[in-house]
UniProtKB/TrEMBL annotation:
The family this protein is said to belong to: Belongs to the PHAF1 family.
Taxonomic lineage of the native organism: Eukaryota, Viridiplantae, Streptophyta, Embryophyta, Tracheophyta
UniProt keyword Membrane, yes or no: yes
A Pfam family per the record: PHAF1
Gene that specifies this protein: LOC107804549
Stretches that traverse the bilayer: 101-122
The protein's name in its UniProt record: PHAF1 protein At3g51130 isoform X3
């Protein structure tokens, strides 16, 4: 599926120049960055990144990369679907993008990225590899590769899968780059076209990084929530949360409690404005709701940030682990990831925690939500919002 952005009139295709950083990234896009940060860079420069397509596998979002594509500039960003971090930059139309390396430029409509030009700019390297089936020769540098199509009449120039450097054909011509790959070189893997593309991995997270930090939830007689090894109980104060998680990314008041109508024990009039307020930790994928009168935690909301959900790109992915082996009711341990646990990668099954009856429908405003409704399954102290493809969008923890 694709989500095209509005194109700004008068923007010239192929007119941008981006710094090429082998093994690190290109322009403002850095290998390992979360997808939310990439979108933030795009939003900061709408006149440059004016046509943007987001591609993903709607039915199985963890099976294939999430891709942000810039068709006017001839490159796209590939994000690992599980961690949602950038693992590979591919320039698929070198004539549309001019790359700057050190003080020189290559590619774009005016500077052909020929084999000789690449070799002259980046210097000596080992012989590359020749894919006979694809007719493509790939030249490798640390964290960087260039693919060159070899005409069938010149395949003899690539004997035993290698070629003389710099590569020139008998008629004096030299092949022109058809694809450039930028990837992390710390694993020592060579990344190129075809199956070699799958070898690109996200770089290790820097020391002390909180991204993808596991959030643990224990179900049972007592519900508890833990992040970074620190237990944050229901009833904790805003000061307690600040101490454990730091300053929230945002704070906003909950205007109307839409679920209060389902609570027979709540004495408040159904039209009363709700004084409760949220602490939003967008970079952790967590919302925390405080009671407006007691200023104590009453609810946690965990977000998976799957594409195809109305909140996609509003939060980074929360890497939660729900321990539910002691949950009241029958738990089918054969359904999901590991024994007695539900994670952000688990696929929903109706009987995962025992039958909960019919699901409530969540539309989030049908006129403004192009992805359609989701389904909410409620249990004691727990609610799952599930997308149509069966993956969990949010988990809400509360105390009855």
């Amino acid at each position: 599926m694709q989500r095209p952005r509005r194109r700004c009139e008068g923007t010239a295709m192929g007119a941008i120049v981006l710094d090429l950083r082998p093994g690190a990234g290109i322009g403002p896009f850095t290998l390992g960055m979360p997808i939310c940060e990439a979108f933030a860079q795009i939003e900061q420069q709408p006149n440059i990144y004016d046509v943007v397509h987001v591609k993903y596998y709607d039915e199985e979002p963890l099976k294939l990369d999430i891709v942000i594509s810039f068709p006017d500039h001839g490159f796209h960003l590939r994000f690992d679907p599980w961690s949602q971090r950038l693992r590979l930059v591919e320039i698929f139309d070198v004539k549309r993008l001019q790359m700057r390396y050190a003080t020189s430029v290559i590619g774009g409509p005016s500077t052909l990225a020929t084999f000789v030009a690449v070799y002259t700019l980046f210097g000596p390297t080992y012989p590359g590899t020749y894919d006979k089936d694809r007719g493509v020769y790939t030249l490798f540098y640390p964290g960087l590769s260039f693919a060159f199509p070899i005409p069938s009449q010149y395949t003899d120039c690539c004997r035993d899968g290698e070629a003389e450097l710099p590569l020139e054909f008998p008629d004096g011509t030299t092949p022109v780059t058809c694809r450039v790959s930028i990837y992390d070189s710390s694993t020592g893997s060579k990344v190129g076209v075809g199956s070699m593309m799958d070898k690109a991995c996200t770089p290790p997270l820097p020391a002390g990084s909180l991204y993808m930090e596991e959030v643990h939830v224990k179900l049972g007689e007592e519900l508890w929530f833990s992040i970074g090894g620190q237990h944050i109980p229901f009833g904790a104060s805003p000061q307690d949360v600040w101490t454990e998680l730091g300053r929230p990314c945002g704070i906003h008041q909950k205007q109307v409690d839409q679920m209060v109508i389902h609570s027979a024990s709540d004495p408040r009039p159904r039209t009363t404005l709700c004084g409760d307020y949220f602490y939003n930790y967008f970079t952790r994928g967590i919302d925390i709701l405080f009671d407006g009168q007691t200023h104590k935690i009453k609810k946690f909301v965990l977000h998976t940030n799957y594409p195809g959900h109305a909140d996609f790109n509003s939060y980074m992915k929360c890497n939660f682990v729900i321990h539910c082996s002691d949950f009241v009711g029958s738990y089918n341990q054969d359904v999901n990831s590991s024994k007695g646990t539900i994670t952000a990668s688990s696929k929903w099954e109706q009987e995962i925690l025992g039958d909960c009856g019919r699901a409530a429908i969540q539309t989030q405003g049908s006129t403004s939500n192009p992805f359609g409704s989701t389904f909410v399954y409620g249990y004691q102290n727990l609610a799952f919002e599930v997308m149509k493809n069966g993956y969990i969008a949010t988990v809400t923890l509360f105390q009855s």
